[in-house]
Amino acid sequence: MSSTNTKQVAYSTEDRQWDARINVQDEDYLQSIIDNIVLENAHGKFKYILVGGVEIGTRPNQSDYQVKHIHVAAIFHNRASKASIIKNWDIVEGKGYYLVPRNRDLPYQGWKDHHSKEFSKISSDKKDWILFEEGKLPKDQGQGVKRKGPVLRSESEKKMKTDDVIIDMRRLIEDGKAEEAFALYPRNYMIYGERIKGMFNQKKKAFFGKHTDPHLYLYGFTGTGKTSLLQFIYGNYYKKNLENRFWDLYDEEVHTHVMLEDLDSLVLDRLGVQFIKTISDEAAFAIDQKYKAPQLTRATILVTSN
C-alpha cells in the first residue's frame, strides 16, 4: 500500500501526515534513523509515530527489490516539510528512500497494518514487526469521530452538475428530507443547504397562533430572582447574547420566549433602541445566524433590569 500515487514530491512540500520507506542496508544506519525518530518523539513532535520492522522488497519493478528497508508512518502535531524530515531523521538520500504525504483515501488502520504486516519481514517474531510505536492512531471515519478538513464529494455529486445537485437538494428539503439531502450531497449541502432552507422557510412561514404571549418587563434589585422566576415560568426561553446582534442556536420551534437579561443603558448604546423596537414587532423581524441565510421570526420578549 503506497501512500500516494506518486513517490516524488518537492522538498518544500508540507504536511502533518507522512509515509516513508527508507532503505537500511546496515545496522548502524538503521539504528541512527530510529534514534533520531525517538529523539523527535521525545521533543513532542509526533501525534503518532510507527516504525515498521525490517523487511526485504519483493517487487522486481521497484527500487527496493531485494533491499532491506523499513516503513515509517508519522503524524506530526504541526506541518513539517519533506526537507526538514530528511534533515532531522538524517536520511541519506543516496541509499534510497521515498517520503510522501499520506494518502487520505486510505484508512488509518490499513496504513498501520501495512507497515506492521508479517509478509516480507526478515524476522518471524511478531515483536520485531514494529520497531517503535508511540501515540494514538486516529480513528477512521465512521468509528466515532468526525472527519476534519474538506468534505469530500459523494459518488452522486461526482456524476452530476452543481445546478442539478442544487435542484434535487431543494426538492428534498421542501419534502422535509433535509437529512437525506445531506447524505446524498454532503459537500454541496455544506455550501448551499442552509440558503435553500432559508428561502423555503421564509416562503411558507405563517406566524398566526405562534408567540402570542405579551412582552414582559421585570424590574427589581440585583439578586432578587427576576431571571430565576422567568426561567421557572418559561422553561424553553432563549437567552439572547447582548454583546452582538447574532441569534446563534435560536430555534423558533423550540424556544417560546427570548430573554434580554440585565438590560441597561450600556446595552442600549451598543445595540440601539431601534433593535429593541424591531425584535418586539409582532409582524416579524429578520435575524442573523452565522453560516445561515437571514431568517424571519416573531418572538415574545422577556426583559429584566435593575
Automatic annotation (TrEMBL):
It comes from the Eukaryota. This is Replication protein. InterPro entries: P-loop_NTPase.
